[in-house]
Each structure stands twice: as C-alpha cells, then as structure tokens.
Amino acid sequence: MHDECGDQEKVLHSNAVGCITQCLHCEDLLIKVENILYSTNIKSYNSLLKILYYVKENIEDHTVEILNKSYILICTPNDNINLCFSAKDFDLLIDLFEQSKLMLEVNQLFS
Question: How far apart are alpha carbons 33 and 50 in whole angstroms?
C-alpha cells in the first residue's frame, strides 16, 4: 500500500470484476475493480460498502441508459467521480465487497 509497507498483503477476495487485498503492515485496503485502483482504510471501505448497499436497494433509481445499454450508476462522495457497471458486473462488485467484508471479520476474530 505504502512504500514503507513492502509487498506483504493478503487477498481478501477476488472475482471476475476485481480483487480486494489488505496490507499486513498497515491494514489498509487496496481495491482493484476493472481499471480502477483505490487505496483506502477500513472506515472508508465500510462507507463505500454502504453506498453499494444503498444502490442495490434502490437499483431502479440508479439505472441509466448509455448508448442503448443499461448500466448501474454509483455516485461516489468524491467530486465528479461516478462509477458505472453493467448489471452483471454490479452483482460481481457486490459479491466482491461482501466476501471481503466477511474475510475482514474472520481475520479480526483470529487476531
């Protein structure tokens, strides 16, 4: 994650849309989804997960048509940064975050 951390990280979960890893030194997370790379702490990760759950619960309000195809639009807290996924990739994204969250909880129990 950071230069001082080295290369020690563990994969929390990966699937066809991306992977989430955790640094063994600083415990920050690296989220790689398609061509997006996002380094974050656990608090921000949980905030992003809440956004994903909100979008999932209100999927109709977040579905847009772009070039005659349907996409799920995710508005992030960052100015002018919105993410867009096909329905299939959005399901994979939810799975990626849910499985990673479970692994974080399991790892916390064992530490």
Answer: 17
